Amino acid sequence: MLARLNLALLALLAPALSFAGDAISATEKQPLNLHAIGMFVLFVSMTLGITYWAAGRTKSASDFYTAGGGITGFQNGLAIAGDYMSAATLLGLTALVYTKGVDGYIYMIAFFAGWPIILFLMAERLRNLGKFTFADITSYRLNQGKVRTMAAVSSLTVVCFYLVAQMVGAGQLIKLLFGLDYNIALFVVGALMMVYVTFGGMVATTWVQIIKACMLLAGGTLVMVLAMSQFGFSFENMMSQAISLHSLGEKLLFPGSLLPDPVTALSLGLGLMFGTAGLPHILMRFFTVTNAKEARKSVLYASGFVAYFFNVILLMGFAAIIIVGQNPEFFEGGKIGGKIVGGGNMIAMHLAKAVGGNLLLGFLSAVAFATILAVVSGLALAGAAAISHDIYARVIRKGKATETEELRVSRFASVGLGLVAIVLGIAFEKMNVAFMVALAFGIAASANFPVLILSMYWRGLTTRGAIAGGYAGLVAAVLLVVFSKSVWVTVLGNAQALFPYDQPALFSMPLAFLITFIVSKLDNSAEAQAERAAFEDQYVRAQTGFGAAEASSH
Amino acid sequence: MSSTSSQSAVYARIRRNPRFAELVSKRQGFATILSVIVLTIFYGFFMVVAFQPQVIGKRLSEGSYLTVGIAFELFMFIFFWVLTAVYVKRANGEFDEITAEVIRDASKEVK
User: Fold this and answer.
1) Which residues in chain A have their CB less than 8 angstroms from residue B50's CB?
2) Which residues contact A457 (CB under 8 A, 6 or more apart)?
3) Any transmembrane segments, and where (chain B) (predicted)?
4) Helix, strand or coil, per DSSP, at residue A289
5) Domain residue spans of chain B
């Protein structure tokens, strides 16, 4: 079986490889990275093998959305870490430390600090109340149709922006690392994603994320250790050289241009922290474990891996200042301090090559590709669940769809999302998509998180309040990002931004909370009374897990 | 998604059990304290970044490259993770035992 899959895979890659040859000879003379391609083919055949195995185990809706709820806390912890640490984490944050020093570290603690809060306030309630999507929780005692529609709309918005940002990054990265044409790279990523999700559902997606997380942790650690060995493993030694060589000098140690004013710093902190707690593909991972115990363990493992890796990245970034920043090989035209070959995001890759040669570069390239695949698969699955479980099965069919019908829709939805991702990825090729990640976190923090947390904690929440607050948060976050510099000036070409900050959360999140609160308070309809009364049962279930969705046995 | 009547009966019995109130207040209190600690330290740090950025780059000792900012962030990474471990240990042990007991009692009465 595996042999047949490999054969099919080779057939799939063969035209891509020959295209790559053309692209390379036509543009930059990048040597075909055989190590990278070899290791990537190995990763893909392994994951396709797993997908084949998983497909045989994906029979029910519960298998498809949540792997039957049978994932252990340790596995889920790795998968969450794999879902959370995208290629932007590895490449973007290393580059951030390389160019701006400690600013990058501040960014990373904001990315990390959401995890303990998710554990203390949300993890067990998510597991006890949810089944397939986080809308199961927000609509638990509220109007199914309205609340689910809203949750699905904001989930799909987050998923689409995050997906496009990943796809554009993927295309550019693969073009550079593997010498594949941008469009072909997108088709490869999109096609593999569709195969994983459509056939293997959550089981395959989880394993892709687990394998990728292990590769990422191993690859990053190896590069870091090899780099640190050049400084005798002395942080002081490395830092003294980095500061004397970097154009920022001592300023590397101070907050700089990334956090130019208090509002930006606070808004970023808020957006990253609570955005994490509202990302649909992350929330969905809490429904894959057996019970609340395992859900808590997932966070413990996930946050441990994330914290460890962020510190690895800090060391990689500082080491790269000396190892990459002083090597003419990595600058265009060999001019130190000029343009980095392949752009600023390639620092981590250059570091891998400098300390471990082509073999390590190949490995880290394969890791980056695997990372993108794992993240887009998780996103596509969350998007598909919003379409098939929330919109189709619960809103359109009002719970009367059979499992077979729902599964069929979810598979169509996965394929549809894959196509949308490819098309949008191609459309946005030349654009700076950095704002899309900010937007995804901003919407997650402003539209998803307030309604979710209030539905679990506040008896007084009503459908009208949730709808008003959720949509207000969504619209406010989108508008503020559109009016910010990254869209209004950079994309739309206006002279002056209407909203002076990049991250909207400081404004849109409190707005969502406030509107939800006021509208709920003013709502005295009969439905509102019933919804408040229904909180009592929900509360007991949230606390004890009695009546929670059970794991199916395999 | 709403609960069935037999489930509702169990929920009602759980609610009446004083051990349930004890569980909720203990666990909620513990989670709240830990959250407040994390949020205070985290936003306190961001306040320093926002309003006193020069403190972040201060050296811990003369001639050392370990700064207040880097040392404190490393401390946050470790400390926050230790807090998650502390919570998981207590919740998966003590709190889950009470939970199991509460559910057992409420289900027993049905028969």
Assistant:
1) 259, 261-263, 265-266
2) A121
3) 29-51, 63-88
4) strand
5) 5-108
A182-229 vs A292-323: helix crossing angle, rounded to 10:
80
The enclosing domain of A360 has a CATH number of 1.20.1730.10
**Amino acid in the structure at residue A528:** A
What stretches of A94-247 adopt beta strand conformation (E)?
A: none
Q: What does DSSP assign to residue A395?
A: I
C-alpha span between A436 and A414 (Å, rounded): 21
Band (pLDDT 50/70/90 cuts) for residue A346 is confident
By the 8 A CB rule, do A81 and A305 touch? yes
Report the interhelical angle of A347-385 vs A292-323 (nearest 10°). 150
Give the span between the Cα atoms of A213 and A375, in whole angstroms.
11
Is residue A129 assigned to a domain? yes
Question: Is position A164 within any domain?
Answer: yes
The ipTM, to two decimals, is 0.92
Confirm if A119 and A512 have CB atoms less than 8 A apart. no
| Helices first, then strands: H and E counts in chain A | 24, 0
CB contact under 8 Å between A269 and B46, yes or no, is: yes
Give the model confidence (pLDDT) of A262-289 as tens digits: 888 888 888 888 998 999 999 999 999 9
Q: Residue A446: name the closest of A383, A382, A507 by CA.
A: A507
Domain that holds residue A369: 30-544
Residue count (chain A): 554
Query: Shortest CA distance to A91 belongs to which of A32, A37, A169?
Result: A169
Would the CB atoms of A116 and B15 count as touching at under 8 Å? no
User: Does residue A519 belong to any structural domain of this protein?
Assistant: yes
pLDDT tens profile A41-65: 888 899 999 999 999 888 888 999 9
Contacts of A479 (CB under 8 A, 6+ apart): none
Instruction: Kindly state whether residue A59 falls inside one of the protein's structural domains.
Output: yes
Whether chain A has a CB inside 8 Å of the CB on B87: the answer is: yes
Interface contacts (A, B; CB < 8 Å)? 163
Nearest CA to A109 out of B43, B94, B99 is that of B43
Query: What mean pLDDT do residues A505-532 have?
Result: 95
Closest Cα in chain B, distance from residue A538 (Å): 8
Residues of A in contact with B27 (CB under 8 A): 543
Nearest residue of chain A to residue B78 (CA atoms): A307
- Please report the residues numbered 121 through 150 in chain A whose beta carbons come closer than 8 angstroms to any beta carbon of chain B: 121, 124, 131, 136, 139-141, 144
User: How many domains, in total, are found in chain A?
Assistant: 1
**Contact (CB<8Å) A105/B69:** yes
CA distance A12 to chain B (A): 43
Looking at A246-346, list the stretches that DSSP marks H as alpha helix, in order from N- to C-terminal side. Answer: 262-276, 280-284, 292-323
User: Is residue B65 pLDDT above 90, yes or no?
Assistant: no
